[in-house]
Amino acid sequence: MTDFPRSFDRDDLLKCARGELFGPGNAQLPEPPMLMMDRITDISGDGGEHGKGHVVAEFDIKPDLWFFDCHFPGNPIMPGCLGLDGLWQLTGFNLGWRGWQGRGYALGVGEVKLTGMVRPDRKMLTYYVDFTKAIQTRRLTMGVADGRVEADGETIYVVKDMKVALSES
């Protein structure tokens, strides 16, 4: 494993977005406003339900977030795709945290269930990523994980078999 810590604050996440955390050409998070978390509270390469790694992160919901004004004016809701993107971001972050090389990209997701909404009165999202596979060979670096998003403790998104890969090209 790496010498990276098991938790990261917003400044650390912004360093990752600038390519300063894992090094140039390796896993990066997007910069705001597409950065979908404020902190990572726990990360591992051998934890989680399957013993293959996990990530837990949080995103503070503020009523003035950019997407509330444009996603259904008069009925502000966070787009569900942004919650899914947050889960993909964290899956790729875990691969970089492991010390694995290459730029991250989403490959897909097997199943997505949206059972709730994020409105401006919510306070915090909590992301849970639980790896089912973490593969690194000469030709392939990929994570496969299940994920869950909670809004103020209520499960609102559940995903199965999301895939993120790292590529050096």
TrEMBL record:
EC no.?
A: 4.2.1.59
Catalytic activity reported: a (3R)-hydroxyacyl-[ACP] = a (2E)-enoyl-[ACP] + H2O
Which keywords fit this entry according to its UniProt record? Cytoplasm, Fatty acid biosynthesis, Fatty acid metabolism, Isomerase, Lipid biosynthesis, Lipid metabolism, Lyase
Superkingdom classification of source = Bacteria
Primary location group = cytoplasm
> Could you tell me which pathway this protein works in?
Lipid metabolism; fatty acid biosynthesis
A GO-annotated cellular component: cytoplasm
Q: Which GO terms describe its biological process?
A: fatty acid biosynthetic process
Database matches in Pfam families:
FabA (PF07977)
Broadest EC class assigned to this enzyme: lyase
Q: Name one GO molecular function term.
A: (3R)-hydroxyacyl-[acyl-carrier-protein] dehydratase activity
Q: Where in the cell is it found?
A: Cytoplasm
The reply to whether Ion transport figures as a keyword in the UniProt entry is no
Question: Has UniProt tagged this entry with the keyword RNA-binding?
Answer: no
Q: Which family does it belong to?
A: Belongs to the thioester dehydratase family. FabA subfamily.
Q: How does it assemble?
A: Homodimer.
Q: What is this protein called?
A: 3-hydroxyacyl-[acyl-carrier-protein] dehydratase FabA
Give the organism the record lists.
Marivita geojedonensis
Q: What is the lineage of its organism?
A: Bacteria, Pseudomonadati, Pseudomonadota, Alphaproteobacteria, Rhodobacterales
